Automatic annotation (TrEMBL):
Protein name: Aspartate/methionine/tyrosine aminotransferase
GO MF terms held by the record: pyridoxal phosphate binding; transaminase activity
The keyword Transferase is annotated on this UniProt entry: yes
Membrane in keyword set: no
Keywords of the record: Aminotransferase, Transferase
């Protein structure tokens, strides 16, 4: 751990997430209360919850939970799933298992910081940036050019955090084929899958495309249940799964028994929860469209393809870092400035900020934001 830098996002959130009056940069969809989630349980899972024994659980995860997760894939079965304490543990341990000195990884940027810094602590890493001038397009040829004989991992994230970009299904399939041809593991962060604005653009899951690929997911983002701290990796390579299980013995050993039952309920009710969250985002987007249109001299706004975060450009003369700092200090409205997504691997835009669009009733935050901007004019 001493080889890892400060986690900029978490350090920033430690200061502001629970003190700012308006959390307008949330990365998760609207959550629900425990009674609301339990209302979605079938008789079997309600009984499991009410009679739950608070002992240790299986390292790979509750069998019923793994079955519920596997039901969301086309080719992965329950034995192909291993559960973790959130997506962060899964990402961290996967990189520890897949990479070491003498290896090389390719990471698409911008991305969640750990997707870059954990591989960098282990081996050489090449970044391939999404192109902001082409609607955050990914150049697959550029990924191919970055590969080396010792490349072990290509890491991607779609729908992307923070841009909301979803690439085309043909490009994603080509990426998986490229990795298979070279014997490389495609590591695919899919935590926002299911929140695409156009469901027809939903990408296949990497673990369904290749038995070498790893699909990362979690209950936190699309399902809006970060308090459960349940994530997972689906991978059809049994030897790799065995190595992941042994790595987990050194961290959490097993997951929380109550969280596993609740996650099982959520996964079984996944379609209903996603329908609710997509409807929330669809209702919120006109509010954000109207807000940014009212300040088109200050912002260049585009709604995301998928997920519940967007990455607008700030056009003000003082720069986005000062803008975000003064906004939260003076108006209590929290945004994430571009420095949080700064990459050590590639040039990344310095004039962007992340805004969250998946929480219920953003109007009070937008009103405070609006009033602060007008008072400055």
């Amino acid at each position: 751990m001493s080889r890892l830098p400060d986690f900029r996002l978490e350090t920033y959130f430690s200061r502001w997430e629970f003190t700012a009056r308006h959390h307008l940069t949330a990365s998760d969809a609207e959550t629900m209360t425990l009674p609301e989630l339990l209302e979605l349980a079938d008789a079997e899972d309600r009984h499991a919850w009410e009679t739950l024994s608070l002992g240790y659980t299986q390292t790979c995860g509750d069998p019923g939970l793994r079955e519920a997760i596997a039901a969301t894939y086309e080719r992965a079965g329950a034995d192909d799933v291993i559960c973790f304490a959130g997506a962060e543990e899964a990402l961290y341990l996967a990189m520890q298992v897949l990479l070491g000195p003498g290896d090389h990884a390719v990471v698409v940027t911008p991305n969640y910081q750990a997707a870059e810094t954990v591989p960098l602590s282990l081996c050489e890493v090449t970044g391939v940036p999404l192109d902001p001038e082409r609607d955050w397009a990914l150049d697959i040829d550029r990924v191919a050019a970055a590969l080396r004989p010792n490349t072990r991992v290509v890491s991607v994230n779609f729908p992307n955090n923070p841009t909301g970009k979803v690439i085309g299904a043909a490009d994603f399939a080509r990426l998986a084929e490229l990795c298979d041809e070279r014997g490389i593991h495609l590591f695919s962060d899919e935590v926002y899958r299911g929140l695409e604005r156009d469901p027809a653009r939903t990408l296949p899951q990497a673990a369904d495309l290749s038995d070498r690929a790893l699909s990362l997911n979690v209950t936190s983002k699309s399902l809006g249940l970060p308090g459960l701290r349940i994530g997972w990796i689906a991978c059809r390579d049994p030897r790799l799964r065995s190595r992941l299980e042994r790595a987990k013995h050194y961290t959490t050993i097993c997951n929380s028994a109550p969280s596993e039952v609740l996650a099982r309920i959520a996964l079984k009710a996944r379609d209903r929860i996603l329908d609710r969250n997509r409807a929330l985002i669809a209702a919120n987007l006109p509010l954000f469209d109207a807000f940014f249109a009212g300040f088109d001299d200050l912002f260049a706004w585009r709604a995301p393809d998928g997920g519940c975060v967007a990455y607008p450009r700030y056009l003000g003369a003082e720069g986005v870092e000062r803008f975000c700092t003064e906004l939260v200090e003076q108006a209590g409205v929290l945004l994430l400035p571009a420095s949080i997504y700064r990459s050590e691997l590639t040039d990344t835009p310095a004039d962007r900020f992340r805004v969250g669009i998946g929480r219920r009733d953003p109007a009070p935050a937008l009103e405070a934001f609006d009033g602060w901007l007008r008072a400055r004019r």
